[in-house]
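can u pls check wat happens w/ 2-oxoglutaric acid
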Amino acid sequence: MSSDGLNRRKRTVNRNGDTNEGNVCRVVSREVSPERPQNQSIMKRVMSGMTLSMAILAMVYYTTQCNDTKELVMASANQSIKDFPIRRQVMCSQDYDEERVRFPSCTPQRCGRFVSDSVITEPEAKHLLLVAKRGLSLGGSSGGVTRLNVDTGLLSIATNFVNIYKLIERTQRMDEHLKELFTEKDLQVYRTVKNKIRKRIAIHFGVPSAQLYFTRTSSFLRMTSKRPQIKADVYWRRHVDKREVKCLRFTSLLYLSTYGADFSGGRFIFTDEMSNQTIEPKFGRVAAFTSGSENEHFVERVTSGARYSLLIGFTSDPKFAVKYLQVNLLTQEKAMIESLSEYLVSEDVLNSRLRRLTDNSLSLNSIALKDDTEGLLLGHPLDVYLLIRRMAIDWKEVKDLLRTKDQRLSDVQMRQIGGHSNHTNALKFDSQCVSSSHEIITNKELKDAAYGVISLINTYDLDIKSLANGFIRSKTSSGAEVTSNGNQSKYALNAFDCYLIGKQTFDNKEYSDAKQWLTEAIDRLDDMTSDEIIADIFNYLSFCELKSGKISGAQKYKRLSAAIKIKPPNMIPIAMGSTDVVPVMKLALELDCLN
Ligand SMILES: O=C(O)CCC(=O)C(=O)O
Ligand SMILES: [Fe+2]
């Protein structure tokens, strides 16, 4: 769950061996660095001598400095934290301010962390370790971390990811035992454990348990000392969970192996301003903390053995809850599609846009609901984004198209639609469903969902072009494309999606990725893309070029953008939130200065 590790500054870890502040600081470099070449010439030897002296000076400097950056062991592996958890309270960061307004009753009253060895039983931990090993053994990253997301089935294989559930579906005829990968008993233990952890978090942080929802981030992790192959393998970078998955409120970790016994290195470290705080993983131990920047952390690189853990993320925002997305939105959408299809048949509607929207939603909705039989809703990483896009954009458009049409329908005709006596009832989607889901799913959520896609790209280091085509492929991987859904992907994004994600990526200051998304948007332009959006795509492309110092490229795109006739301001494309205006205006000014 981290994105920017490779370009973070070099990290040193100050370590005290005991539970309290010590005076001896051992400075250990954790940087992944290539081996030094052998120096042959005298000149080189002199140079390396000088380098060494500078390194020693730097060490002395760090050693004197490290009295200020102490390291405290919050929970050691030798300890047994049974009766009372170890707790630490920290000041809440501002990361929750927005949620505080939206969900006052479930905003954390206090922020902090706790560690306990008595949340789950030993048999439960043993069972989950077997489940983790069984699941993870189907994959295996070529780098240091293998992830298996239990809810989506996403599993690291070599430098790629596959959907394990689809894999099983395809191979089960040959390999009967795979069907039994997760038995009912396994899932039952998994659910019990998740609920126990949720309850503890609720008690500890004073949040009603019923308002803590599981997110789709839950994953088994196996960390080893293997050299990283892709960005996602670098698990030892500092990060803030909430910055990567915005909706997160609490992060919990269940450790399924023990520091010092099953592996070395691999301690969990909070990077506090004055001192680092360390948790040594222990079999059956649960650590939980508020996910904002008050709890920035990293995992030390494992030096030997294998480290197993189960990460479970919680949100207070029901829209990002697994259950909400699975049950509410999808079933609501299904009802809307049924009503609409009935209406389209009975009315012989000629509006091709309406048909296209319905067909597209129908196919995506039925894929998701078909998976329901296996309890695996929303299995593709783009599912959530696409569902929210349908709710925020497509269904709103359907409603608008129908509104326009309704005005031309007589009362008699209205009654005929679906056999209902008044048109509000007949067009269920028009009255209740669309309005309510549209009220719930706003452009803000759509932007968050787009942000979710960006986090996914960064966390798993995915190739943008492949993902835009609905395929999951790592940026750095070579060879055959590994997909989660056969060769023909139903998840291909359209010009608007790529534009929206491109804009969010731009706001994230990732200009090269933003350019890629916007170029994908250009490749996907069709008759449904409005001129305003096309002009804005070119505008953003121009800003991307400008940010990368490519002045002539910036000017070229700016001219292209200006060449498109912009309609009056009420036609400003959807999802152009007012917050975007300021930076874009600023950039526009910068660009104008160049002309
Ligand atoms: O496994 C751990 O201890 C922490 C992993 C982590 O921080 C993450 O995946 O965000
Ligand atoms: Fe994390």
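The two ends are 42 Å apart (CA to CA).
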